[in-house]
């Protein structure tokens, strides 16, 4: 098994959830360490939030380590509005000094 990185698009919604689901599901049998590039992901709807929640819980259950790369504050705010908090997701950019 090896590390693998996938890059997510700017949104995960009901309109594009099937290919994202297939892409993420495929990872469960192929790797031990997953790198998810979420640097472009800024919007999820309820279906997208549920998918990310399910993915996170499944990785935890299978002891798979997920390294979320480039998470944006907009994504975390969007998920929070939908009632989903994923502890693994952290904003990876430094906060700017307020002036």
TrEMBL record:
UniProt-listed PROSITE patterns: STAS (PS50801)
Pfam families: STAS_2 (PF13466)
Protein's name according to its UniProt entry: STAS domain-containing protein
InterPro entries in UniProt: MlaB-like_STAS (IPR058548), STAS_dom (IPR002645), STAS_dom_sf (IPR036513)
Taxonomy, superkingdom: Bacteria
Gene3D superfamilies associated with the record: STAS domain
Ranges where the STAS domain occurs: 6-99
């Amino acid at each position: 098994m090896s590390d693998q990185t996938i890059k997510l698009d700017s949104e995960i919604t009901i309109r594009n959830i099937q290919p994202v689901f297939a892409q993420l599901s495929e990872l469960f049998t192929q790797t031990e360490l997953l790198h998810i590039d979420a640097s472009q992901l800024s919007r999820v709807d309820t279906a997208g939030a549920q998918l990310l929640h399910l993915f996170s819980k499944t990785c935890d259950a299978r002891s798979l380590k997920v390294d979320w790369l480039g998470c944006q504050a907009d994504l975390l705010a969007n998920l929070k509005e939908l009632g989903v908090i994923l502890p693994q997701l952290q904003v990876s950019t430094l906060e700017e000094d307020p002036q």
